Amino acid sequence: MAEKKNNNILRNFNPSETRGKIITCKAAVVYGPEEAFKIEEVEVHPPQKMEVRIKILFTSICHSDVDAWKAQPESRRAFYPRIFGHEASGIVESVGEGVNDVREGDYVVPIFQAECGECKLCTCEKTNTCESVSYTNTVMLSDGKSRFYTTDAKPIFHFLNTSTFSEYTVVHSACVVKLPSVADDTRILKRLTLLSCGVTTGVGAAWNVANVHSGSTVAIFGLGSVGLAVAEGARARGASKIIGIDINPHKFIKAQAMGVTEFINPKDEEKPVYEKIREMSEGGVHYSFECSGNSDVLRDAFLSSHEGWGLTVIVGIHLTPKTLPIHPMELFYGRRIVGSMFGGFKGKSQLPHFAQQCLQGVVKLDDFITHELPFHDINEAFQLLIAGKSLRCILHL
């Protein structure tokens, strides 16, 4: 028998009772860098103009959450207490003035990479960034105030436009994507949680940024969720050879099931990794993807691509002040390098179609979900990711 839809999960959900009111609910609050998450009561204020309040049903943990929790970079250390989280799915509880593309009861995913649809960046086909709602300044909402408060009225900082480690959250409408109607099935909604960041970032890097072509060769540095999503994207595009590079040998079995055809553990190699890849790919790969956020790895990724046409895509987040480890003259040999954010997807306008492709099996979302836990076990879920034992742990709220 098919799994029941969300009727049981939403048995206490009645927007008419909460619309326009402060909601008291559970959230995972952190009071300092690397401190344990505390599940406690918080107050979530109503959405203001162009905002949406969402009842979160599922959320998951990304390495960007871990980096921010560790207060990297240093400038983030002041923003506590805080509610992290940016991968989730849920249902719209209420909307603020001016919001007309989603309404109460719609199933949605929040996204950190906004698309207002009106600024000069959103109306340009060459970029998926938005100048109206940036992800770089997201500790409060657009009016400079929080929508989260402790029960003694102290403000709680937001995170990456989303703050999904809470039973309810408030986000700008530019950061809300309406899902297909079939998302009212619990199994489907749980999978689509992954589109908020990791899978979209990796698959999009292969499809939108690199435009991997059939028969091409690919090297992926770092086989976490994003790296494996790159592999999924390259596999779906018909890449002939997908080389995975990681220092954790336990990742190789999972990677093989997700499209990786060759493996390299840098710890086992006597020569530079880029030389090994050149030997394996007749002089270098067509596309290399740096998914680890390590500048030394970035250099290997760049030099592993083929002279004349090789393209390196930076997918990992580089938080240190180090600059690119590349001499300008090395670019004269025809290799190129480009950054990728959110896989080049324009969230509100392009993610619904991508969701349909995932549901049709073009991308196998189930393979990314390695663990599921109740929300109150969030500290355990964090440690699983830090220890390299999980790809994505889905938390049930």
UniProtKB/TrEMBL annotation:
Q: Which residues form the Alcohol dehydrogenase-like N-terminal domain?
A: 49-180
Enzyme class at the top of the EC tree: oxidoreductase
Known Gene3D superfamilies for this protein? Medium-chain alcohol dehydrogenases, catalytic domain, NAD(P)-binding Rossmann-like Domain
Q: Identify the domain of life.
A: Eukaryota
The UniProt catalytic activity note for this protein reads: a secondary alcohol + NAD(+) = a ketone + NADH + H(+); a primary alcohol + NAD(+) = an aldehyde + NADH + H(+)
Which cofactors does this protein require? Zn(2+)
Q: Which UniProt keywords apply?
A: Metal-binding, NAD, Oxidoreductase, Zinc
Taking every annotated instance into account, which residue ranges of this chain make up the domain Alcohol dehydrogenase-like C-terminal? 226-348
Q: Name one GO molecular function term.
A: zinc ion binding
Q: Which SUPFAM superfamilies match?
A: GroES-like, NAD(P)-binding Rossmann-fold domains
Family matches, as Pfam families = ADH_N, ADH_zinc_N
Enzyme Commission number, as recorded: 1.1.1.1
Asked if Glycosyltransferase is a keyword of the record, the answer is: no
What Gene Ontology cellular component terms go with this record? cytosol
**Could you list the residue ranges forming a coiled coil in this record?**
none
Q: Which GO terms describe its biological process?
A: formaldehyde catabolic process
Q: Which PANTHER family match?
A: ALCOHOL DEHYDROGENASE, ALCOHOL DEHYDROGENASE-LIKE 4
- Describe the protein's quaternary organization and the partners it interacts with: Homodimer.
Say which family it is in. Answer: Belongs to the zinc-containing alcohol dehydrogenase family. Class-III subfamily.
What is the protein's name according to its record? alcohol dehydrogenase
